[in-house]
Amino acid sequence: MSAEEKPGHNWNAAAYAAQCGFVADLGAPVLDLLGPLAGLDILDLGCGDGALTRKIVDGGARVIGIDAAPDMIAASLRRGLTARLMDAEDLAFERPFDAVFSNAALHWMTRPDRVIAAVARNLKRGGRFVGEMGGFGNVAAVRVALNIVLADYGIDGNEISPWYFPTAADYKARLERGGFIVDQIALIGRPTPIGTSLAAWLDNFAQVFFHALSPRVRVAAQDRVIDLLAPLLRDETGAWTVDYVRLRFAAHLPE
Ligand code: BEZ
Question: Confidence band (pLDDT; 50, 70, 90) for 2?
Answer without folding.
Answer: very low
